[in-house]
Amino acid sequence: MRIDVITLFPEIFQGYLSESMLKRAIQRGVVEVHLHNLRNWATDKHRSVDDTPYGGGPGMVIRVDRVVPCVEDVRKLSEEWGHLILLTPQGRRLNQAIVEELATHRRLVLLCGRYEGFDERVRIILQPDEISIGDYVLNGGEVAAMVIIDAVVRLIPGFLGDEESSRQDSFSGPDRLLDHAQYTRPREYRGHRVPEVLLSGDHQAVARWRQQNRVERTRRRRADLLVLGWQKVWANDRVVCKNQPRSKDESPLPGLLRGGHCGAVWEPTQELPPAAITCQTEGPPVEFHPGEQPPEDKPPVEGGSVNNPQHAEITEETGNESEDHGACGKAIHETGDSPF
Ligand code: 6GU
Fold first, then answer.
1. Which of 72, 105, 278, 328 is most solvent-facing, going by the fewest CB within 10 Å?
2. What is the mean pLDDT of residues 33-41?
């Protein structure tokens, strides 16, 4: 992959690019990074790239007649047109799905802003993919550009060496849950023991423990990650439970309820979402667990419609946490030894 960075502060990148992982990837030709100083596209004797905003107000605005020619010239440096990204707190918020999408491009052109931002016509003319790295304000797009480079390059085949390890990362894989707890030697340290199942050599049991741990951790730490999918049941004080055939469009969340299946919607609150939701149907009750497999893999629910949403009830948190880690001897939440 080729990455071009347009910035007023190319020096900010030097240290990062010449360190460890990135350095080796560049040396091995997995990625090439080219830095371009926007100031080189200034045409006046003061080499100005910004000016005061029309209409008044604080700060300076980066000039459209510096940025557009710069991007055009940089694009010409390679056959590949490139995916243009503008780093701005007003962009779509970066997540691992977006990182995966960016990693599919053969070339990225990253445009870093400073000051009060760019003249609006930069967006209109260049139609960049505007990306933010989170809901806070940085002094400029440079650190955000480094975040994007760092996250993207590790998905390029040949960067990590072990491609499986990136699939197992937090936010990755089909469910995008947090990663599970990890342990290494010693088996016991100051009375804290490694969960017995991890020492058992039973690969299936280990895999089950890890998946349970991922779901439970995500439920406790990042319930917001459990909202975006049918199989992911999420926080709230009201359960909607239906098993009538319905279209995707009727779903309170896009894609959450599918025709012929029973689904549960849990509205978000600050509370911890339940470990399971039981939906009372005219057929047998159906239990939903956060992170369980999508309905395609489950048989459709038999029985009629659920007429009364009140029938849906929350299953109280069961003792399955201590069950899972019973090897520790004591109840985990009492010892502060919880792996979640
Ligand atoms: Cl991409 N730029 C700036 N200046 N602030 C940010 C950001 C980007 N993402 C989050 N905050």
1. 72
2. 98
